Amino acid sequence: MKYTRISALAAIGVGATLSLTACGGADSGKDTSSKGSSSSSSSSSNGGSKSEGGSGSGGSQASNAKAGSGKGTEAEAAGNGATKTGSKVTFCKTEDLAIDATDAAPDEESGRINITMINRGSTTCSATGFAGVDIKDADHTSSPIERGQAQPRVTILKPGDAAVFDLAYDIDNTGNSLATPTDILVTPPNETHTVSLKWPTGAGAIKGAYTDVQVYPTHTTK
Questions:
Q1: What is the pTM of this model?
Q2: Is the predicted pLDDT of residue 141 greater than 90, yes or no?
């Protein structure tokens, strides 16, 4: 009977010990979890700070790089512009050109008026591009001439050199042409001053209207 009571007390003591151990283990787990959570939060906070700092720094460097690149480009462009400007040939002025128009029809079907411009100035100039051309009619009206499908060629004129461009149209051999041209109004490429030339004597009659005549870009005679 005494033995049984001692065994019971021992069992109660062991159960109490296990219960205390279990409680301690649970508390220990909570502390560990709490510490781990706090550490993770701190690490995340620090990581976010680093990330923001890195991004800010990187953005600043990128901005600086772009700004530097932009400045370099502007400086380079300015340098190139200065170089080009220094060696640029200016366009020929109307007052420095001797201009004349002649009939140059290759046959009885194709009309062509050659307009020659000679550089009478003292410096080299450019006559590159399309001249502005209007044809004046006997009724005192004038019609602008459209450009033909052709690419301009570089036309540089030294003093005494000549450039030529032509007007092309179909010749009306019926004798019923309604066009009666008297003058050709010519404005050299990139100029604003115009000269008036007489329509060449003997040039074939224009078939259709003045809108059917086309002007082609300048080229050198050499």
A1: 0.61
A2: yes
